[in-house]
Amino acid sequence: MTFANMRKGGLLALAVASLLASPAFAKVTVLGWPGGPEETALRAAADAYNAKPDVAENDKVELLFFNRDGFWDKVQADLAAGTTAFDANLLATYSIGRYAPFMEPVELSDEAKAVYGDSVLKTMQYEGKQYGVPTDLSAHFMYYRNDLIDALLKDDAAKAKFAEISEKHLGKKLEPKTPDEWTWDDYAATALYFTQAVNPDSPTRYGTVLQLKNLLFNMMVFQSLPRAYGANWMDDSGKITVNSDAYRKGLETYKLLYDAGATPRDSLSYEFAEANAAFASGQVAAMMQWNAAASDLTSKDKSPAVAEVTETVAPPTGPEGRFTHIHGLGFGLNKNAENKEGAKAFIKWLSSKDAALIYARNSGAPALTPDVVKEVATERPDLVKLGEFASKYGYVMNGGTSAKALSVYELQAKEFTGYWSGAQSLDDALKNTEAGMTELLK
Amino acid sequence: MTTISQRAPSSEFKLLATPLVVFLLMFLGFPAIVNLVYSVSQVSFENLRSPQITGFANFAAVWNDSAFWQASWFSLRFGVLTALLECALGLFLAIFLSPLIEKRSWLLAILMLPLMVAPALVGLMYRLVLHEFVGPVPYYLWEYFGASFSFLGPASAFWTLIVVETLQWTPFALLLFYMAYQAIPKEIVEASAMDGARRRHRLWYIELPLMAPTIVVALLIRFIDGFRVFDNVYVLTGSGPGGSTASLSIYIYEAFFKQGAIGKAVAASVILFVLSFSVLYGLNYIANRRKGAR
User: Fold this and answer.
1) pLDDT score for A406
2) Which is the most buried residue in A62, A220, B191, B278, by most CB within 10 A?
3) What is the ipTM of this complex?
4) pLDDT for residue B132 is more than 60
5) Residues of A with CB under 8 A from a CB of B
6) What is the dihedral of CA B58, B60, B64, B69, to 10 degrees?
7) Do A423 and B244 touch (CB under 8 A)?
8) Is A214 within 8 Å of B258 when comparing Cβ atoms?
9) Domain A140-324+404-440: top CATH class
């Protein structure tokens, strides 16, 4: 063997050794949610954690991301296959039950309860055990144009027209109110008033925009309406209660708005992005939407037509109260983690006040208790409302974290959109949903 | 010492074919067997490695599921209509544009551009194009007619999807037909012209019969592609209100991933395989009989 060959061989061996040795530096691998503010926030938190002097070299955090498309399905397949590619992974409220068999409950820091509060911690619980730290929370706000509402409230002729429209479509004379005082009927009446198909003098083409695509996330937006009338997925004995007056009221209200033309006719193919685009055009008066839309809809660059007149309140109220559907993203522990202790330590730290504030300051959306959120209130005013609404009005349906929660939303999406589109009756939609949920949640 | 050249041809064949057979067994045979086991099992992500054999309950569930038949009907209609439209348009364009493309062959490259776009991106593109407040089509409809047409509503979604699919895949048929048209011997065409055949007679009695094998192949390929459609439909309408735009591929995907009903999804794919195989076997049998009859 010549020296040159020996040298090549040596270099090759060194390269192979380096590659093989690299997992030793992999430390704690965390699978995150890619490409959004959640990624930015997680990167900042991981950097802060790695910079801590008491974190051993072998326990430093390395992040892993893959495409959002089919993310939850891919994670499920990975976990079920016993992957060791990551030690901690992202999980969502509605996926905990599916992932729980492949994950381990986690221990949070002593500060966690004071930082997040019980209702938010609950979004990461399954069968009474804590499976993750809730880093990002999604809730729903009622977005509305304050210029339109203010004008309506000052105009007597408009009030008379409002009462006439509400009587014709809802069967009762209503007076315009400020959105923070809205019942769901007030919302429906306002949506109808600002619809040109109902009121040709309306300054906007549509009074609202509903997200009616056959998609599970749209069902989450819808749930707060029937919930305000007492809806739940099942009672304490486990009996499915979806075939109820509360769901009937919610479904009929949406149908009424769709049939009256108060929402674009293509709403049956609308989801988050389409609804935002409709509202941002200035042709919609009010809509229920995820809190994540707030920054775009109040940005002069992104939504010049409505940025200065857009305001948010909690969803309208009903006989049983005011509710906003909440679900969280968080981080939990892979049962097959190679560096389990390191992952546990990171997750525990992530639930501390320091970590939550770092996460919040770097574009994350944690729902923090009033005492904690005031420390970032000037930089992140949107988090103040998120924390307030989540703690006051946040709810998770009975069974909302079960193994089949996603399938329940899917089922509802199929059946309810079938009713809204006119393909089936309300009775059939509720009957099919009840039968399907009974099978799924048995 | 025995060398390869001294072995019987059958031994050489076996030796050379072994890697391919092993490859096929590993990557097709093994999943096929697992699928067959799953199709007669109660299986979910929780017990992937230890499915419980339960007989033919999954097949019965699929067979009795109205959504399966709704999806089958959607796929069949979609496959037939898009194949017919794409081939009819492709044939017309191939013949109509032939003189132009002969002189300016770069035109063909431009016409092929839609094929270069991934179907999922096409779906995404049309979500923007057809959106009432973002898309150019609804904008001009509103400007000129003061009306907002619902492109993806329950009444029109199917036809919108047909148009989107046809616009993307007609160039594929055009390419096949143009090549077949160019391959027709010039002397036959010239001889018919000398004999006084009119243009439409040449087309009907000479050119189309000579292109017939290509037309059949194009129809078959486009039908198969249309029948198994997933990407652009899923991006544009999901499975539609009440599952109205769910194709069989979407039905199987949703059963597997969204409902976690793995056994049911696999059973549906097995039924689909058996039906497809039967149809293709039948077509092959008819083709062979016709060949034998000549």
Assistant:
1) 84
2) A220
3) 0.80
4) yes
5) 70, 73, 76-77, 79-81, 98, 101, 205, 212-216, 264-266, 268-269, 274, 277-278, 280-281, 283, 403-404, 406-407, 410-411, 414-415, 417-424
6) 70
7) yes
8) no
9) alpha beta
Backbone angles phi, psi at A62, to 5 degrees: -120, 135
pLDDT band at B159 (very low <50, low <70, confident <90, very high): very high
Interface of B with A (CB under 8 A): 45-46, 48, 67, 127, 130-134, 148-154, 157, 236-244, 254, 257-260
Going by C-beta distance under 8 Å and a sequence separation of 6 or more, which residues neighbour residue B239?
Answer: A214, A414, B245, B246, B250, B251, B254
Which DSSP letter does residue A269 get? G
Indicate yes or no: CB of A213 within 8 angstroms of CB of B238: yes
Copy the structure tokens of residue A223.
């749930």
What string of DSSP letters covers B46-61? GGTTSPEE--SHHHHH
For residue B92, the domain's CATH number is 1.10.3720.10
> Dihedral sign, CA of A300, A303, A305, A306?
negative
Contact between A278 and B45 using a beta-carbon 8 Å cutoff? no
Number of neighbouring beta carbons within 10 Å of residue A64:
15
**How many structural domains is chain B composed of?**
1
Q: Give tens-digit pLDDT for B11-34.
A: 888 888 899 889 988 888 888 899
Q: Which among A363, A355, A367, A379 is positioned nearest to A47, based on CA atoms?
A: A355
Spelled out in words, what is the top-level CATH class assigned to the domain A10-136+327-395? alpha beta
Q: Would B220 be classed as within a structural domain?
A: yes
Q: A410: which 2 tokens?
A: 């899917």
Task: Tell me the two tokens of residue B234.
Answer: 């899923």
User: Closest Cα partner for A400 from A216, A134, A277?
Assistant: A216
Model confidence at B7, pLDDT cuts 50, 70, 90, reads low
In a domain, B114, yes or no: yes
- In terms of residue numbers, what domain contains B147? 40-293
Q: How far apart are the first and last CA of chain A?
A: 71
Q: What is the pTM of this model?
A: 0.82
**Domain boundaries for CATH 3.40.190.10 within chain A:** 10-136+327-395, 140-324+404-440
- Asked if pLDDT for residue A8 goes beyond 80, the answer is no
